[in-house]
Amino acid sequence: MNSIHFYKYQGTGNDFVIMDNREGQYNWLTDEQVNELCDRRFGIGADGLMLLNKSEDYDFAMKYYNADGRESSMCGNGGRCLAAFAHKMGVGDGNLYFIAVDGEHAATMDGDSWVNLKMQQVDFVEHGPLYYYLNTGSPHFVKYVEDVQAVDVFNEGRGIRYNDRFAADGTNVNFVQHFENGIFVRTYERGVEDETYSCGTGVTAAALTFAGQEEKEYVVPVQTLGGQLEVRFTKTGERSFDNIWLCGPATLVFEGDINVK
């Protein structure tokens, strides 16, 4: 029986189990154990699990697992929560630089619980007749709808995620509606295999597709089931974007200890 000291964080309802692994003390975790810790009935409950790892070249390294226990692609809200956790642990001076599976990221703190996370630039967006498809650190299918609250996100999202094109590697699926001066986004996440309250890379993908034709700086307010985010970016070409920042809250919910077999 191994004991884990964990922290539970959430960013607009996207929730994560986090451990300070800078000394490598949790390197023994298996995919099955990660899955059990994320289970909402028999574990702590979370959309994913992250390890704060030591890095020689950066303030820290981010290791992210989906709730199914498998290491996954970039998670935007996870990156924001891990930056807030690193700040709580005394890492950096409010300006953080870290390495994740998709490359380098910068993060800045506004207070203790608002995090601005710099995302990777996007150089291509596939635009079909009824959809957009792009990678913002994770792959995202974006579909605009008239009434996002009426969408059956689980079944429609699952149908797209497991269709012939995407079944092998999976994709996240976002349903988007124009909302006030921004957008409302609901997301089906692969690896969780369900709708989540928010998805940072999905919100980012949707915000980029919301930009007009003009090449300029944009600020897009985004509503999710779990709260409000903001995406700032510069459109640099017809389908290219740079200086992309995902901004929003990231807060500690609780911490505790759990024994893992």
TrEMBL record:
Keyword flag Hydrolase: no
Claim: Nucleotide-binding is one of the keywords in the record: no
MF term (GO), any: diaminopimelate epimerase activity
EC number(s) from the headed UniProt entry: 5.1.1.7
InterPro entries: DAP_epimerase_DapF
Catalysed transformations (reactions): (2S,6S)-2,6-diaminopimelate = meso-2,6-diaminopimelate
Keyword line: Amino-acid biosynthesis, Cytoplasm, Isomerase, Lysine biosynthesis
Name the record gives this protein: Diaminopimelate epimerase
Species per Swiss-Prot/TrEMBL record: Chitinophaga niastensis
Lineage of producing organism: Bacteria, Pseudomonadati, Bacteroidota, Chitinophagia, Chitinophagales
Encoding gene per record: dapF
